[in-house]
Batch of 4 targets.
Target 1
Amino acid sequence: MSMKDKLKTELFPTIWCPGCGIGLIMAQLATVMDELALDKLNTVLVTGIGCTGRMGAYMNFESVYTLHGRTLPVAEAIKTVRPELNVIVVAGDGDTASIGGNHLLHAIRRNPNITVICNNNEIYGLTGGQTGPTTPQGTTTISSPGGAAFAPINLQGLVNTNPRAYYAKTTVYHQGPMRKAIKEAIAWPGFAFVDVASQCIENNGRRIGFASANDMIQNYRTQYKPAPPGALVLGPNQLGIIKGLVADESSAS
Amino acid sequence: MISPYAPERRAHRPPTIVDYVNIAWIDEWCKRCNICVEICPKNTLLLTHDAIIEVTDCIRCGLCERYCPDFAIVVLPKRDEAGHLPPDAETVS
C-alpha cells in the first residue's frame, strides 16, 4: 500500500494552478489515511466550494460536494446517522470562516466528532483574489488596493471557546507537524480543527511581492516558529497544537 | 479506464514517465511551477525546453519529491554499479 492508492491518479493532472499548496495538503492527508488504514468503507470526505473542494474528486473516498459554506452541517448529519464513520471535512478558509462562519460557531458549540482541515491561504483564491476574512490587515488585494481594512478573524480563539476542541496550526512547509496534527485530529474524540497555512501564488502571492511559489514556502520556513512547550495560546506566527480536555462520559451532562 | 463521470472522454492513458539517474519525472502531471528547481539545495534540477531535467550532483535529499504539489517527481531507489534499479523497485504510478 502506498499513498497513491488513496488518490485517483487517472484523473491527474489536478486542476489547481502551478505552485498551489493544496496538492501538498492532499499528499499529507493521503499519507495519514494510508498509515491509519482508512478506506472508502469507513471514511467520508465532505468538501466545500472553492479550490480546496476539488480535493474530494481526486481522492479515492466517498465524498460529498456540499453547498458553499455548508460543509459542517452535512458532516454533523453524516456523523449523527452513521457514527461509526470517520468524517473528514476539507474546506478552504473562505468556506469555513466566511460564508460558513455561523455553522463553524455552532459546530464548535455542539462538539461533534469530526475533523476539519482548513486550507488557509488568506485570500478568496478561486474568484480571483479578493479580500477574505483571514486576509491580514494591510494586504493589497484586487478588492482592497489600499490594503485590507480590518483585522483577520481569530480562528484559534473561536475554536478554543469550546474547552474540549482540538486546534492545530501548521503550514505546508512543516510537513511533519502537519502529518502529526492531522493524525491526532482524526483520532481526537470531538471537534478537531487543523489550520494549514498554504500558498496561493497566482492570486495572492504575486500581488504582495513574492516571485514564485517557492518564495512563499521559504517565507513559511523563516516566519513561522514552533510555540514553546505548554503554550495555551499560539501567537500570530507560531506553529503548535492546543488540545482541550478529553470529554469523558461522567462529566457529560 | 474510462471515467464513470464523463464516459465520452477519451480512455485514460498512462502518463509519460521520464527516468533519470536519481529521479523520475512525470511529464503530464507537471505544471512547471519551478518549486523543485528552486528548492533543490545542490541546483541539480533544471527547467529547460519545457522539461525538468536532472543535471548532476544529486544527493537524494528528497526535497523535490516532498514539495512537489502535483506528485510529478519521485526519487528512485538507489541504483547498483551497473546502473540498474533493484528488481523489487516500486513503479511510479
Target 2
Amino acid sequence: MSENTIDAHPVQGVFTTETLSSVGFGATKRRVVQIVYVYAEQTENGEVSCRVLNEHFIATGKPRIVSRGDLFNKFVPAPDVYLNKYLPARQALERAVDSADQCRQDGQLFTAEFEYKNALRLDEDHIRASFGLGLTYLEHGDAANASMVFRKLATLKGVLAPEFKHLFNEFGIQLRKNRMYAEAVRHYSQAVKLCPDDENLWCNLARALYEKGRVRAAKRFLDKALAVRTDFAVARKFKAYIEEKSMEIVLDDALVPPGVESLVQGVPASMMSEAQTREEPAISVPKAEKA
Amino acid sequence: MSFQFLGAFLMERGLVTKDQIDEAAAYQAAANRRLGEHAVAAGLITPEQVEGLLEEQTVTDMSFGELAVARGYASKRGMDSLLFRQHVHQVHLGEALLVLGHLTPAAFSESLADYTAQEKARRSALSGILSELCGGEILETLVGALERAFQRFAGCPVKVLGELSVEDMSRMAHSFASEAPIQGLGRLRFTLHLSPEMFSLLTGASRPEESRRTVSDVPAIICRYLEQALAASKGVKTACADSAPQFPLQGGDRLRLRLACPGADLGLTAVWVPETSRAGVPAR
C-alpha cells in the first residue's frame, strides 16, 4: 500500500503490538510476551487517537495521540479483532444501554440501575450509561449516589456533544428538581464555559441560581442569555418575573424590621416557596431546558 | 435475625430461602472490594499508605477517601473516579440474588419498594424518639459514631432496631463501658453490650486491618468520633422545654437501644452525667 493510499483513508480500526516484559524474581524470573490491542481513530487534524482495549474489547482510558507514521511503525492492523471482537462488544454494550434506557423510561428503576451498572462495568466512561445511572438515582430521590455520578460526569469529555445534549439538560433539570442546587449550578457553569453561545444554558444556569437564592447572579446570567439571543422570550419573561418579585421584596422590606430578610442574600425562604409554585406557569422555563 | 434487614425481609415474604441468602452473601463477598483495594489496584496509593490510613481512622472520623485526599496521596478527582468504580462494581444483595437466579426483577422491585418504605419509617421513628429527648442530638451523634466505627472496623453495617429489652440484654454477655466529655456540659457514659455473635464478629474479623483492633478499642474509637462530630456541629442545644423528657440533661435517665447487623446484634445503654452534678446541682 502506497503512502498516498494510506493518506486517502482516515485511520479507524484495531491495531496490535507485542510487548516483552519480565515477571517473577530470581529463579522464577521469566520474560513474557503481552499482546496489546488499541482502537485507533484519526482526528480532524490528521493525528491518531489511540485507546487501549480492555479485556472485554472495549476501548478505555485516556486517548493517546500519535502520528500516523508512529502508529504504522509500531502497530500492526488487526481487522479480524475489529470485526469479530471490537464491533460485537461495542454493539452489545450499546444494546445494553438501550435496554437500560427503556427500563428507566418504563419506571423500572431497579432494573435500569442494574443494567446501567452492567454496562459501566464494561466501559466506566460510557457517557450515556453514566447519565442514565445518574438520572435513575435522581428519579428515585437518591441524592448521595446522584452526586457521585455527577462528579464522574464532570470528569468526562464529550458530555456536551450534540448526541448527549438532551441527557445533559435532563440531568440538570433533575438536579434542580431534587434541590441539588449547588450541583445544578456547577453542571451548567461547566457547560457555559464550553458553549458560551447557547442561550438555553445561560437561562438554565440562571434558573438554578435563582432557586438557590442568588437572585442578582440569576439576573446577570439572564442578561447573558439575552445578549446571545435578544428575542429569547423565556429569558425575557423570567427576568421580568424576577424584577417583579424583587420589587415586591423591596416593598415588603419597608414593612419588616431590618435584618429579618435581605434581598442581597437572595430571595427569602418564604418568598422562594411562593416563587417556585408560581414559577412554572409564569415563565415557562421548561421550554428553555428542552431546547 | 430481624426482618429489618433486606435478606431477612425477603425470607419473611417467602421469596428466598436461608441457603439462597447465604449463597448470595458469599457471591457478594467474593465480588466486592474495598476502596483501598481499588486504590492500590489503580496504582494510586501503596499498600503501606492504605495501612497508615486505616490506622489513622481509629483517631480521625473521616472516610478513607477523605483521608487519602487530606494526606495528599490522591487528588479529589482521582478519588471520585475510584468511588465511582467501586460503586459500579459493588454487588448488592438484590443483584446477587438476581444473578444467581433466586429472584426475578419484578418480584425484587416490588419488595424493594416495600422495604424502602419500611426503612424510611424506621429512621423516622428513631429520629422521633431521639428528638423528643432533651439533648437528643448528642445521642443521635453517638449512634452515628457507633454506626461508622462498626462499619469501618468490623465491616458490620449496624442499625438501630428499637428498644433494648432486659431479655435482649441478658443474652449479651460482653460489656464495654466508656465515657465522653461533651463541650464542658457534662459527660456521656455509655456501654456497649455485645451478643456472642457480635463479639465473635469483632474478634474474628476476616480482614487483617480489622483483626488488629481488639474489641476494647471500639468504645474509645466511638468516643473520639463522637467528640469530633460534636465539635464540628454548631453546638449542642441545652435549653429544653420543661415538658420535654429530661434526657440526657438530667442524671439518672438511661437510653437503651438494640442495634444489629445481619447475623449479630448489640445493645447500647447511655446515661448523661451533668458537669455540675458532682456538686449536687444538676445543670440546666
Target 3
Amino acid sequence: MFRPREMKRTLIIGAKQDVEKTIELLHSLEIVHIIDYQPSDAEEPLHLGTPTEKASGVSQNLLKLRSSAQLLTLEREPPSVSEKISEKQIQRDIYLKTQDLELSVLSLTETKTRIEEHYRKIDERIRQLQPFAAMNIPLENYQGYDHVAVFTGYLRDLKKINERLPKITGEYELFISDEKDQMIALFIAKSYADDAGKLLSDCGFTEVKLPEGEGLPKQFIEKWTTQQKELSEKLVQTTKDILEFRKRYAEFILASEEYLAIEVQKAEAPVLFGMTDYSFLIDCWIPTDDLPRVKEVLEKEMEGSLYLEEIEVKHEDEPPTLLKNPRPVRRFEYLLELYSLPNYRDIDPSFILSLIFPLFFGLMIGDIGYGILLILFGILFMKMFKKSEGFSNIGWYIIIAGVFASLFGLFLFGDMFGLPFLPPAGETGVVAYSWSSLLGFHIPIPSVIHKMESLGMTQLLVISIIAGFLHLGLGLLIGVIVEKHNRKHAITKIGLLFVLTALALLIFVMADWTIGQWLKPLKNSVVAPLLWNFFIPLVKAGFSFGGLLVPYISVVFGALGIVMIIIVTGGFGLVEVLEVTSHLISYTRLAAICVAKAAMAFAFNMIGLGLILSGNIAIGILGVILLIFMQLMVFSLGALSSGIQAVRLHYVEFFMKFYKGEGIQFNPFRYVRKYTTTE
Amino acid sequence: MAAETGIIAIGAGIAIGSAALATAWAQKTIGAAAVGAAAENEKMFGKGLIYMVLPETIVLFGLVIAFLLWTKM
C-alpha cells in the first residue's frame, strides 16, 4: 500500500519463428510492460524489429471499418452494447462482412447526400423564381425581343419612376407585383434602354436575374414544391434505413474494429523488440508477484523454447510505477497523479492523502450545514460527470470532505450555516443569534470552540500548528526512510525534524493556557503522573527572552538540529531551516480560512436575519432571498478555497519533504476490451 | 487607552493588508504564467498550481502578526 508494486526486469529471448506465438501469449497475460528497444551502436548484432507480415493488410481493413464507423457516427455517439462478441465469431465473419458493409454504408450515405443535394438545388431554384411568381407572366415572354429591353428587379422608389418614366418615352410597359417587396418588370423600347437604366438606378433598383425555362413561374413553383415533398419523404426513409442499419451492425462494426485494433497492436509489437536474423529479444518489466505465473505460462505453452532471464535492477534503471491500493484509496491516486506520478522508488502517499486531505478540507469548512451541502453537491457532481474519471473522483473527495465537515461542525464547532446551535455565553442582541433562540427550543449541541471569539481563534491557531507539526513530521520521517541510502540527505532531514520539534514546543509553550485546558481530561488517567511530573515541567523550564518564555528543551533541540545540518551540508542546509519554519506557519491557513469563512457567514447572517426579523413582510421576504444568495456565496467560496488550500498543504508543504514523482506509468502490453471477448 | 487600541488596530490592519497586496501581486504574475504553461502542456497543471499558491504563505505571516497585535488590544 505504501510502495508501488515491485518490478523485475526480465529478458525474453527466442527463435524468430516463435515471435508471433510469444506475442499472443504476452498479450493475453496483460501484465508485461515492454521496454522500447534502443539499439546502442552499429557493432551490435541486434537491430530494431519490423512489423509482422499481416500488419499492413490488417491496418487497411481497420481503416475501412473506421471509415464505416465514422459515416455511421459510431465514434461520436457510441450505442450501448448489450453483450460482447467472441473473437472467434468475428474471425469467421469479418472478411466476408467488411466488404459488404463498406459498400452498403457507402451507398446508403451516398443516397442520403444525393437527396439532400437535390433538395438544396430545388430550394435554390424556388428562391430565384419566387420574385417572378406574383407577376403572372410566362418566363418566355421576358426575353427574345429585337426592339424591346427588359428590366427585372426590386425597386425602392416607385413614385419617382411613375413620375419620370413618361418623360423619357411613352413606349414602355411597367408591371408591378402587388407584393410588398415591389418587384417590377419594365418592358421598354431598346433605344431608350440606357436612359431608363440610369433612371432606375436613381430610384434604387436592384436587378434580379431571370431564371431559365418556359411557362408560368407559379406552376413551376407548385411542381417543385411537390418534388421537394417527395424528396423529404425519401430522406426520412433513407435516414431511417441508415439508423436501422446502424442499429443492426453497430455491435459488429465496433467489435470488429476493436478486434482489428488488437491485431494491429500485436502485429506492430516487434517494433519494440530487438531482432537478429534468427532470434528476437524482449526487454520488459514484470511485477514480481506475477513473474512466476508469466514464467509458467510461457514455459508451458512454448514447451521450453523461450529463454527467460531476470536482470538485476540497477540504480540508473527507471522501473515503471504500478500503484497498489485498496479501492477507496485508489480514487485518491488521481489527486496524486495530478501533481506527478510517484516514481518507482517513492513512498506512495495515496493512503495518507486519502485520510488527511479530507480531514483538512473538512476542518476548514467545519460546519454541519455546509458539510451536508458538500455531501449533496459531491453526489450530484459524481452523477453529472459519471463518464469522466477525474471529475467523478473530485466528487468523491467532496463527499468525504463533507462528512468530515459535518463531524467537525457537530462535535467541535457546534454550528450550522455559520450560526451556532447555542448562543455564545455572555452575549446579547444580534450577536447572540443562535438556532436555539431562533427556533425557540434548546438544542443541546455546544460549541467546543467558538470560531468568532478570541479564545476560539487562538485554539484554532494552536490546532493548526499541531496539525502542521504532525503532518510535516510525518513527511520528514518518510523522507528519512526514502533517503536511507543517502546519508547526507537523511541526516539533514533528521536535523530538520529536531528543528521542527523545537519550533512546535516553543509555540505550544506560548499557547500554554490553551493546551493546558485540553490536557485537563487526562488528569485522572494513567499517564497523568508522567505528564505532570516529567513532561510539563521539562517543557516549561526555560528563560525569558523579550517577554517570551523560551524553553530550554527548544533551544537544545533547535541547536542540535542546526548543528547536524551544518555538519553534513555546510551552511547551505540552513536555508531548509527557514523553509521548515515558514512551512509550519503555513498551516495557520487552516485556522485562517476556517475563521474567515465563519466571519463572512456571521456578517451575512446578521444582515439577513436582521431583515427577516424586522416585522415587515416585504422586507422579510427580501431578507430570505438575500440570505439564501449570501449563504450560497459563502458555501461556494468556502468550498473552493478550502479545497485548494487542502491540496496545497499536501502538494507544497508535505510532498516537498520526501516526494520526487515523475514516475513512468506501468503500461502493460494489452488492450482494454470493450466490445470483444476471447471466450 | 482608546487611542492606543486604535493605533494597534490600524497596525494589525496594515500588517495583513500589505501582506495580502504582496501576495496578490506575486500570484498575478505566477498565475498568468502557470495558466499559459498548463494550456501548452496539461501535465504542468500540478506544478503550476504549486507555484501559484506558494506566495500565499506571505499573507499568512501578515495574519499571524495581525493576530498577535489583536491579542494585545
Target 4
Amino acid sequence: MSIDMAQFHQVFFEESFEGLDIMENGLLDMDPGTVDDEQINTIFRAAHSIKGGSGTFGFNDISSFTHVMETLLDEMRDGRRPVTPDAVDALLRSVDVLRDMLGATKDGGEVDEQMAQAQQVELEQILKSASAEASVVSAPQVEGGQSAATASASKQQGWHIVFRPLPQMMRTGNDSLRILRELAELGELKVDCDLSALPPLAGFEPEDSYLSWDLHLIGDASRETLDDIFAWIEDECELAVMPIYAAEPQERVTVEEAAKAASEEPDSTQDVSGPSEVVQVTDRRTGQDRRSSKDRRTGDRRKVQGGGGGGSIRVDISKIDSLINMVGELVITQSMLSLLGEDFSLDKLERLNEGLSQLERHTRELQESVMQVRMLPISFTFSRFPRLVHDLSSKMGKKIDLKMTGENTEVDKTVIEKIGDPLVHLVRNSLDHGIEMPEERLVAGKPETGTINLNAFHKGGNIVIEIRDDGKGLNREKIESKAIDKGLIDVDHNLSDRQIYELIFQAGFSTADVVSDVSGRGVGMDVVRRNINELGGSIEIESEPGKGSAIIIRLPLTLAILDGQTVTVADETYIVPLVSIIESIQVKEQQIKRVAGRGETFKLRDEYLPILRLHELFGIENPNATRLDEGLLVVVEGDGRHCGLFVDDLLGQQQVVIKSLEANYQRVEGISGATILGDGSVSLILDIPGLLRLADRQDGDGLKQSA
Amino acid sequence: MNDQQSDTLTNSQNQSSEYLTFRLGDEDYGVDILRVREIRGWESVTRIPNSPEYVKGVLNLRGSIVPIFDMRQRLGMDSWDYGKDTVVIVLRVKGASSERNIGVVVDEVSDVLNARQSSIRNAPQFGGGVPTEYISGLVDAESKMVMLLDVDKLLNQDIETEQNSEDAA
C-alpha cells in the first residue's frame, strides 16, 4: 500500500461506518413484504460506496463480501426478490460482520475470516435459493443489463475447493490422490496442502488420512463434473466448493475488474451444498487460529502505535462558515483598535470603549462558535437503539415500539462518546425489566405492544435525556425487601418512594428474579450513575406502578467551559461551578448549632445543613474569616446532598475554560480541574461531590448523619 | 536498575550524553538534557490542597497546567527560601502510558555536562534513608561529583504511590 493512499484511509473508514449506519437504519425500517424503492436504493448506494472504496484501497476481503450483499440488494431493488424478514435479518447480520471487518482493518487488527466466510456463505445461500425461486425470466434480464465486455471480464473463472477428508476415508478404499489427479485434468489446479493435522511419527496411523487441501481450479469445469468426482467420498470428507469470480480476493484483481464485477449476477449453475459448507468453514478454525494469533499480536502492536490519533470530527460546513465570519469581524475590530492606539488622545476614549466592547462581543461569539464545532446531534448515540430494540425484543419475545424525539439536539462530542454505554444499559433495563410480555400487558389492559420513548431536549443550559417506558414500573416492595436484606436500610425506615427508587443505584443491587444475559446481574446502575456523574450530570427516576417508569438524565451542554463563581479563602482563589450553587448567605452566630460539640450546622428554611469550612478541608492557613459571621456561606448541592461551604468572600462570576490537572499531575480529591484566570494565574475548580466525600473522610461521622 | 545499567554500558561504552547540572545546597545533580523542556525563573504558583509537602503547586505553562515539585524536599533535604537565582526546570517525565510535564525547583542551574557512558559510576549503597534509588549514576566533573537523577523514577513514583495510598484510604 502506498503512503499516498493511506492518507485517505481515515476518510474511507469514517464514510464506511456512516454508510453502515445508513444501511442498518434502512434495513430496520424496511417493512418485509413491501418494497420501498428509495429505501432500498439508499441501502444499495451505501453498500456500493463501501465496496468501491474498499476495492480502491485494496481491502479485497471487504469488497468481495460487500459484493455479495450488494447482489442481494440489487435483486430486491429490481423486484426480482421479495423482501423477506429472513433476508433482512441476514443483511443486518452482514452489516455487523462488515462493521467488524472494517473495524479490524482500521485498527490494523486481523479480520475474523471464519465469521465473514460463514456470513458470506449464508448470503450466497439466499441468493442461490432466489435463483431457484425467481422465475427463469430473471436470468436474461440480468444478462441483458450487462455490456458484453463486463460479462466476459467478470465471468466465473473456476472453483475454490476446500477438501478435508475424514480420517477414515482411506479405509473405504478411496484415495485422495486419485481425486486430485482427476481435478488436475479439468484445468489448471493450484494445490495447497494443510499438514497441520499430521501427528508425530509415533502417533501416526498409516490407514488414517491426515491431510487436507485447499484447491484452486481455474477452468470451465461445471459444478456437476466436480460433484461427480467427489460423489464417492461425499460422506467421508468435509467439502466446500465456491465459485471463483474475477473479483475474488484470491485473484488479487485490479479495481476496475472489481467494479465491473459489482453488477455481476452469480452463476445460476452455482449449487452450493449448504450445510456441509457452513460446518466446514467453522471446522477450519483450528488450522487458522494458530496463524491468526500470531497476526493478532502484530496487529495489537500496530494498534498501540496508531492509538494516539485522537479521532476526527465531521463538522457541518455552516458552522465553519460562521466561524470564519466571526474571525473576520474580530480582525476588523482588531485593526480598528490598533488604528485608535496609534495616536490616542483622551477625547477618543468613548471610541476605545466602544471598540473594546465590540471586541468582547466578538470574542464571546467566537468562543460560542468554536464550541459549536464540538457539538454533535445526539442521534449519533440514538441511532444504535432501533437495532438494539429490534434484536432484543425479538429475542425476548416482547413487542416493543421505540419512539425517539429530539435526535437533533446537540451535545458535546465527549458527552456523545461517554453517554452511549450508560444509555444502552438503561434501554436494555427498560426492555428487560420494564416492558412486560405481550400476554401480561393484555391482562393488565394495556396495548400488546410496549413503548419506549427516548427523548432529548435542552432545558436551562442542560441537555435532558429521558428514557420512558410504559411497562410495569419499579416494584417498591421488592426494592425495599432487597435493601433490607442487604442491610442498606432499616426495617422501620420511613423513606419516600423516590428515596427507595434511588437504592437501585447502589452497587450490586438487582431485583431481577432471574439473571438474564440482558440484565439483572446488578452491575450497572451504579456504573451508570458514576459515568453520568463523571460527565457532571445527574440521574433521576420516576416510576408509577403499572404505568411505567422514566429515567431522566441531565447533562451539561459542554465539558470544556463552565460558569463559575470565584471565591477566596486567605490569598487563594477557587472556582465553584455555578450549577452547584443554590444561594449564598451570611449567617449570624446564633443561627449556628453544634452537633457533638464539633459539627456545625445551621437551619436554612426547614432543613439543617452541615457547614464545611473550606480552609479546614484544604488546610489553608490564615483565612481572613474564622468566625462564621465574618465570612460567607455558599449553599451548594452535590450528589443530592446540601451543605454550606464557608469561604472568606465571593469575587465574581465568570466563564472559565476547564483544564485538566491529571494531564500532568493527578486527580486531587475535591478538585475537578483547573483554569487560567485573566491575569494568567491558575485557579482550581471545586468538585462539590468530591468535597463532600473529602469531608466525610476528614471528620468521620459528622456529615453522614446529617445528610 | 543494575541490569539496565550494565546493559547500557555494554551497548554504548563510548557514547556520551549531555546532562544539565544544577545545585541543591552544595551538592550537584544532573538530568538528561533531552528531558529538559525549559528553564524558567521561579514565580508564585497555585497551591494544591492536601498534597505532599514537596508539591509546591501548579502554574500555567502556555495554557497547560503543570505541577511544580520542590527538588530538595523531594529528595528529603531541608527546604530553603527561594531567591533570585531559584529556577524551575520543566522536565518531560515518561510514565507507564503517558508523558507528563513536571517542573522542579532547584537552587540554581550550573552547566551542561558532557559525560561518557564509561565514566559513569554506580551510586554506592547507603543504609537507611538515603534515596539512592533515584540516582542512576555518579560522574566526576572538575573535582565535583555530579549525581545523575533518574527523572522517571523520581517524579513518577510518587504520583503512583500517592494514588495507591489514596486508594487504600
